[in-house]
């Protein structure tokens, strides 16, 4: 079902999703039998429950395919022959305004905006007299957080789009202009500041949180927004606020006995390192469980639920980019003879077969692949695993702080910046850096004379970008990192010479049958590849979306 701007605006006035029991057809619009807003927000429990869908089914159509198709395939971490996503890896204008996954991403993310707006604009006046003010403010903080989180995805994918703050302002006029990118970032910062001021601190029962975002979650996201804007002082201020609060912890650093791989086990949902996770109810009705394993797992033997389609494979470039001994490789990519005790645990674990070969890569994806229902407390079904999806982890706060300290410098030996990045490297079993280098030339480890000089002998490397790539690979963020390495002006003006150089040096090919020879493939993106085209049904309904963006008038 399409979700054009006209629909998105009107949907927020009709009502909200029910908390449970939604059918697939209702993911993109409120069901007709939705709980009436006027009769719902009468108790603290009802107000708290009103935000639950912001963490779940609204994101399903983004997480199922578009998230990894854009961020991992376009970014060069993954490849696929699947016809509905292959264009994302091909670049050169291959993704058009008719692409189904582009449309699915747009629909899903705008629905998050719509439902957040419904809560923000309608809940305060309809809350019962017995609702505790702190509970109401916390729920509103969560809604502001997710509105900003959805916009953060939207603006990075499509660039200038309309800022829809209150649907009732557009009931008689669905023709709206896009607003400037810089205004959208200001809007997101304002939303996150509201969330920071109104959300409570993280509540833990032992090691596990309640799964909702907190004031610290908003501070972490503020740090990330400021980083994109190259406002390094504020990025560092917010990041250090989070670090000094003690609200979050790093597995394997602050918490002994836990590893990087443990972060992606269902049993560790909402762990101490989680800043924001989507909350999946594995085995529930379609659309409420995590769909990632269905696409990523190398076979049905791993999932035990009839899916495991191996639609995405890890590129040769990603595989070869890891330093020797990096523990994150095993947790992210399955290679022949690797052993995973947590998968098919009842039979002693899963050993990756010698003929593993997802999408011609001689390997397969491991991250977000968690095994059978029996491996996950008996919970799970086809396209419905129970492991959560990270939208942000505490490790990123350390890397944001390091990058903010380095700023626009090409090298840094700052002790604090090194301490932050080396904490992440230590967990990965890597040697500490003594200097942080940015955008420097290094020998190409993938160079081979058999490529007939198609691969350059030297490439551009970046210590912080490389660390982020390996820490967050297959977590749907690398493409966004590439899109911002040309700075804030590059984001505003869609100019990406440095990103183009990074992408053009990637190996996006496949292995030959001998599993040694590489069929070399490289791409050089066009400037138009750095933003997706707005789906055609949207621009047909609202041609103003194709006009130059206009300034936003803030309330």
Question: What is this structure's SSE topology?
Answer:
Elements: H1 5-14, H2 44-49, H3 60-64, H4 66-74, E1 78-79, H5 86-90, H6 100-126, H7 133-158, H8 181-198, E2 204-205, E3 208-209, H9 215-228, H10 232-245, E4 274-278, H11 292-296, H12 300-303, E5 313-314, H13 316-321, H14 327-332, E6 333-334, E7 339-340, E8 350-351, E9 364-365, E10 389-393, H15 394-406, E11 411-412, H16 415-427, E12 436-437, E13 440-443, E14 458-461, H17 463-472, H18 478-484, H19 487-493, H20 497-504, E15 510-511, E16 518-519, H21 536-541
Antiparallel strand pairs: 1-5, 2-3, 4-10, 6-9, 7-8, 11-12, 13-14, 15-16
Helix pairs in contact: 1-6, 6-7, 7-8, 7-9, 8-9, 9-10, 9-15, 10-15, 15-16, 15-17
Q: What can you tell me about this protein's structure?
A:
The protein has 555 residues and is mainly α. It is 39% helix and 8% strand. A two-stranded antiparallel sheet has the order 1-5. It has a two-stranded antiparallel ribbon with strand order 2-3. The longest helix has 27 residues. The chain starts with a helix and ends in a 14-residue tail after the last helix. About 5% of the residues have low confidence.
